[in-house]
Amino acid sequence: MSNLKIAREIDADVLVVGGGGAATRAALSAKQEGADVRMAVKSKWLKSGSTATAFSELLSIAAAIGHGDERDHPEIHFSDTMKSGEGFIDPDLVWGLAHEAPDRIFDLIELGLDFDKQQNGKLVQGMSDFATYPRTCRVNGVTARHILNILAKRLKELNVPVDQDMMIFDIMTDESQKVIGALGWDHAAKELVLYRTPAVIFACGGSHSVYKYGVGTSEMTGDGYAMAYKLGLPLVNMEFVQIGPAALFPSVTLLSGPVWKTNPILMNGKGESIFANILPEGVSVEEVYQHKVFPFSVSNVSFYLDTSIQREMETNPTPRGGVWYQKRPGTDELIESKMPKTKRVLKSKGIELDDDKFEIGLISQCNNGGVQILNMDCETDISGLYVAGETAGGLRGPDRPGGNSLAEGQVFGHRAGIASARYAKQLGAKPQPQLGASITLDSYNSWLQKCANGTKSVQEAADSVRAIMHKNCLVIRSEQRLSEAWNFLCSLESELQSGEFYVDEGQFYQAVELNHMIIAAKIIVRSALERKESRSCHYREDYPEKNDNEWKKSIRVRCVNGEMRTELYCWPTVRKRLG
């Protein structure tokens, strides 16, 4: 392979990395603030990522506007969210989320988003987990996509350029730790792009695709986590991965809480109930289903659903590695009332609930952890680098209240957009990152020379990362499982760095993506190894009890002198600001 060379240079005040709800909101707010904004989307905009593909019977955005119950207000939203995550989340960020979410809802309405309404014109608001009052707002069953599309429409009207098929893979900083630029790989044109920009927003989602099965699309490989880690920034709460049941084929379809209220029949590959000889005395299958919400949790008897699925996937799987799901006779009316959208989506994929049994398994849905942000403006310790959406950490602990995810994207995408635009305008002159780019490329070219004689397959290695995470870091975790995953990932990382994989120009993109996958997976596994207790979506079968005395605190991971280090982190229990 010839040496990497910069094919194009692009100037921007603000570079937004990502194309989902948080990224698009950030780009719009930065543009409205007067910045020259550019978006870099790893795949096809509006067709990839979590926001564009999200589906659930309960998918919605939370805001305490009091239309569902006039007693609801932001202080109660704040209190509800803190109760679900106290000890693991930043009270200042939660306060800001609760108080600014209503304004972002009205922004969307002003842009033309038609939320579901009551006859009196007020918004329909529903209940969600951890909520005192109904506060989730919906749009015709596909809320996330409608939010994304209405924001995108306005961005297009403002002529904000979007670079599709562009993977940002390296952020350059000067000696004072200020952003001076970014390197991107256009994997359609197979060429290197240098962005000359003083401000970058990471809003590129999570790392669902470090698992064998995940929602969203395959390019979500933890790029934001990996780039932040390489810059020395802390990542927090990364052991808390939302995992739960979904139809696996022909494509992943999440099976949310209401689906289980229809009491389906679940069987292993031998045709036996997955609950046989599993449930303790006094616990029925119906009770397990009644308590089930998405994602997996150790907090109630629904624990037996997800863990039973995993054990049968490992011991008595169906032909493609799952368990069988079949409609229970006599539940037609229940299905129509509880899961009409899921039934329609399954039918669109060729699965008829009335006639078919189909394979389900466990999938990764969301990272509750992320890059720790310092304040409401989404700042980090790197001047000019902002983080929003699922890439950001500090708002989600072991649990995440329903509707908060979409709200976080709008509130913090907006804040990051404004803050980055003001920062860039304040600096004035564009940075000159060419020297930094040259030094960075020398490092990559040296690595590529090692890879010229490599023999191993990058694609096979990526599949092996997904397989080891599926096997050892799903809902059932232990010292043995996690240590096996850790050792495997460390060995794979060493092989990649030493040039044992063959990489040419056509595979540079996949090789960098593999590196990011390994880093993201290692952060998750290392955090899960450190947390020697069971809490919410993190279950250690060797430490099955919750231990507030020792573990009601977060685990932070960062790169120190090239090594992955962990530390316990205690959040403030009260807000730092008043008013």
TrEMBL record:
Record GO terms (molecular function): steroid dehydrogenase activity, acting on the CH-CH group of donors
Xref: InterPro entries: FAD-dep_OxRdtase_2_FAD-bd, FAD/NAD-bd_sf, Fum_R/Succ_DH_flav-like_C_sf, Fum_Rdtase/Succ_DH_flav-like_C, SdhA/FrdA/AprA, Succ_DH/fumarate_Rdtase_cat_sf
Going by the UniProt record, its keywords in alphabetical order are: Flavoprotein, Oxidoreductase
- Tell me the SUPFAM superfamilies matching this sequence: FAD/NAD(P)-binding domain, Succinate dehydrogenase/fumarate reductase flavoprotein C-terminal domain
Domain Fumarate reductase/succinate dehydrogenase flavoprotein-like C-terminal stretches: 465-557
Q: Does the keyword Lyase apply?
A: no
Identify the residues that the record assigns to the FAD-dependent oxidoreductase 2 FAD-binding domain, covering every copy: 13-406
Q: Which PANTHER family match?
A: SUCCINATE DEHYDROGENASE 2 FLAVOPROTEIN SUBUNIT, SUCCINATE DEHYDROGENASE [UBIQUINONE] FLAVOPROTEIN SUBUNIT, MITOCHONDRIAL
Q: What is this protein called?
A: Fumarate reductase subunit A
Tell me what organism the protein belongs to: Effusibacillus dendaii
